[in-house]
Description:
The protein is of the alpha/beta class.
Amino acid sequence: MLTVGLFVPCYIDQFFPQVAIASLQLLEKLGCRVVVPTNQTCCGQPMANSGFAALAAGCDKNFIRNFAGLDFIVSPSGSCVLHVKEHLSDQHAPTEAARIRNQVYELTEFLTDILKVQALTASFPYKVGWHNSCHGQRGLHLSSMSELVAPDFSKPARLLQMVDGLELILPQRVDECCGFGGTFSVYEEAVSVKMGRDRIREHEANEVDCISGVDMSCLMHLQGILNRQGSRVRILHIAEILNARS
């Protein structure tokens, strides 16, 4: 039995705990022993993205302290996983930092590449619009990029196709950014909101029941716009759908 450390991003812990719970339950259903370190905190991505990477040193040390020695680290967040993969370091524990960088996975990546899931017991009889998050697609290569002449693939879509009753509907501009971009949505609010509205307009035209993705940060941005527009479309992280029983 694989021992998996569940890395819960701080915004999921504070605002969307149901996503962490769904991730834990899903991993356990698939035969993993899941450990949730209670002293884990932010991975340091907000500081690094704002140009203050040196201030994230404490986050790095704490991350290594919490996840050292585990077979794998899995998280329901592509952007946080990419940050750890590319930036986790500690001059006092370089070997363990390097090991963790190689053993940390986004949830759908782990299900597809490590567990090699071929079937799920989930049921979700709704129309689901899919949002490709930039970090997951272009950093972790969870799906192909439309501008490249290359084979088409999507690890999250492959998993969603295993869900009974689910109708997956892709937007025409399948890999366009939603406009969140972390602190970009604060410093360039107007541009961020316009990009988010453009994304939502296409999903609503497809008459989806919900929009899903691998990053609650992007989905949180879209949810805020949907709520302000009084839309009936809801937001669900892919872990909640893969763990659902109607």
